[in-house]
Amino acid sequence: MQEEPQAPGPAHAGPGRTRQSLVYRAGVLGSRPTVPTDFAELERRAQAEMSPRAWAYVAGAAGEGTTARANRVAFERHRIVPRMLPGRVSRDLSVELLGRRLPAPVLLAPVGAAGLVRRDSDTAIGAAAAELGLPYILSNQGCSPMEDVAAAMASGPRWFQLYWSTDEPLVDSLLARAEASGAEAVVVTLDTTMLGWRPQDLNLGSLPFSQGIGIAQYTSDPRFQEIVAERVAAKAAGNGGSDDVKVTLGALRSLLSISREHPGDLRTNLRSPVPRAAVETFLDIYSNPGLTWDRLATLRDRTSLPFLVKGVLHPDDAARAVEIGASGIVVSNHGGRQVDGAIASLDALPAVRSAVGPDLPVVLDSGVRTGSDVVKALALGADAVAIGRPYVYGLALAGRDGVRDVLANIVAELDLTMACPASARWPSSVRSCWRRHRDGPAGSDHRPAGAAPAVGDESDLLVELDGDPAVMAHLTGRATPAEEAIEVWLPQRTDPAHDALGLGYWSAYEGDEFVGWLCLTPTADGEAELGYRLRQRAWGRGLASEGAARLVQHGFETVRLQRIWAETMAVNARSRAVLERIGLRHARTRCASGPTPCPAPSSARWS
Ligand SMILES: Cc1cc2nc3c(=O)[nH]c(=O)nc-3n(C[C@H](O)[C@H](O)[C@H](O)COP(=O)(O)O)c2cc1C
After folding, report:
1. Whose CA is nearest to atom 2 of ligand 1?
2. Does the keyword Isomerase feature in the UniProt annotation (predicted)?
3. pLDDT tens digits along 203-228
């Protein structure tokens, strides 16, 4: 019988092997995990446990669901190139975020109205997060007052997510409570100043908040209570509009739900106008569609906590957030729940990272389902990820333990995945480790140059490359002066619009050595121009053909381009040979007059 490889001692096991052992040992005794270890089965089983309304709210997405799907497609498109025999028994998954060291780069995203799934949802989620030492971002639309969740979490790390209300004193009150209850940061969600178009909920006529579910941060707030009291008084004085409600079974159910969710005794609540007034007040003021960057900037003077902005997808918005003093960015499309047809969060990440530089904390959420997804997000520039729906499904299946198991499974898989990319620490070493490969577009060094802070590091190398007259002989016929390279050419390499399409520039490395770059530049819809430039010492070894062939494959298979074309000078025999070798067909030769002493270029095209 063949022997299994020797298991390392428990001290070296790491979260991956520890979790596997736990599951397999229990399996020997005949039990199976309550929470499935893959997302598809987790989702399927959770749906069976949840009411149709809860399922619609949690799993639902905006419009036709294309953004939610794009999130997953983006993760699937990026592939890992594992490295072998790193010779390390354990890995350090810990990262430092906003001054606190976390055991793994994983947070629990803010999820409102989780009480639809289970009562006491937020305290259960908080306790599970604290058990794992992972930060829980408490939702402004939570189902327990933040003080209760804080008590359930003891010293576990927590942040508070804020929806900016139209009532400014309420904003101040929520900020003060967050600070007093031990939140370490505030996350302001920018993408939901209005609720997205969500057909799953709309088709059921179901909004949790109108049932009183998800408004506990408000009903427990002194400023909010004041506004509600004013509303009730105005109504009593006859100034608050008509109170006519048709008595139907649905209306009675809603009244019961609202009264049950409201703080205090159910019987008293059923007779009181306050719970209903609280729901109406919430719907009126919970979010401010008129919020501006200038208003957001007032946060700096209103809390001593660092603040992050959530829902950023465009690099200019990220830059703006930095300008107004944000301490971090959450790249997110709200799990595809707000704008249908939006860019996948993962696809937006590289450009955001480029815009904010290497040091600002960037968290990515939307579509993260596995440990392998976490590796990809970190390799593309995130410092950590936030998880949404998966832990809610764990909650549906097994309450607090279910939340813990879902997250522990993701961290376990992350640990095992990290064993292959051959990096003991991260995130920086994961990035550099991936940069060193020379064998595949996505997920390795052949990624768009804007994809990671490496671009900045490469400026000198790029200037040197363009400064070599031999390299430029068949391009401009002259060495490019350093200033021109820096001012004119380098900025063109980091066009976020190109990155977002899956096109742009890729750096090529051989071992640790930079050998040049390749690019696919969009020239029309479904069409891109192939280009490359290699250092002299990389010539004649098949590197251009190898890289260009992979890029062509990437362009057709991943980006789904219809046509890729390239142009080279007629006398550039080496390049013509490369283009022929990778399958481009010579289309035509044209004569061009220009300032350079070079012979006329020829162009080769292939569709
Ligand atoms: C049921 C549900 C409720 C949510 N509530 C909030 C919320 O109150 N505040 C917020 O900023 N984001 C909210 N989000 C968005 C999440 O914070 C996060 O961006 C998203 O779930 C990540 O995508 P994923 O579910 O694919 O992991 C909610 C998401 C879900 C699924």
Report:
1. 111
2. yes
3. 999 999 999 999 999 999 999 999 99
Tell me the catalytic residues: 334
Q: Is 388 in the pocket of ligand 1 (CB under 6 A)?
A: yes
Determine the distance separating the centroid of ligand 1 and the alpha carbon of 335, expressed in angstroms. 6
- Contact 288/164 with Cβ under 8 angstroms? yes
Asked if residue 387 has its Cβ within 6 Å of ligand 1, the reply is: yes
- Give dist(CA 242, CA 373) in Å, integer: 52
Cβ of 46 less than 6 Å from ligand 1? no
Q: Which atom of ligand 1 lies closest to the CA of 57?
A: 1
* Residue 384: other Cβ atoms inside 10 A: 25
How far apart are the CA of 388 and the centre of ligand 1, in A? Answer: 5
Return the C-alpha torsion angle 11, 402, 384, 182, nearest 10. -100
For residue 41, give the 3-state DSSP assignment.
Answer: helix
227-242, pLDDT tens digit by residue? 999 999 999 998 665 5
Question: ipTM beyond 0.95?
Answer: yes
| pLDDT tens readout for residues 424-475 | 334 332 332 223 222 333 333 333 333 333 334 577 888 899 999 999 888 8
Q: Ligand 1 pocket: which of 162, 164, 213, 337 to mutate (most atoms <8 Å of CB)? A: 337
CATH code 3.20.20.70 for 10-210+287-428: yes
pLDDT over 90, % of the chain: 62
**Domain ranges, ordered by start, for the chain:** 10-210+287-428, 222-285, 436-606
Q: How far is CA 434 from each of CA 42, 385, 441, 505, rounded to the nearest angstrom?
A: 31, 19, 11, 16
Q: Which residue stretches of 332-488 are H helix?
A: 345-356, 371-379, 389-419, 428-435, 454-457, 459-466, 469-472, 482-484
Question: Are 177 and 221 in contact, with CB atoms under 8 Å apart?
Answer: yes
**pLDDT grade, residue 192 (50/70/90)?**
very high
330 pocket-lining for ligand 1 (C-beta < 6 Å):
no
Which amino acid, 234?
A: A
Mean pLDDT of the chain: 86
Question: Tens digits of per-residue pLDDT, 468-499?
Answer: 999 988 888 889 988 888 878 877 776 667 76
Q: What is the CATH number that goes with domain 436-606?
A: 3.40.630.30
CA distances from 295 to 291, 308, 310, 380 (A): 6, 15, 16, 31
- pLDDT at position 525 over 70: yes
Q: Is 310 in the pocket of ligand 1 (CB under 6 A)?
A: yes
Please indicate whether residue 111, judged by its CB atom, sits closer than 6 Å to ligand 1: yes
CA 190 to ligand 1 centroid distance, Å: 12
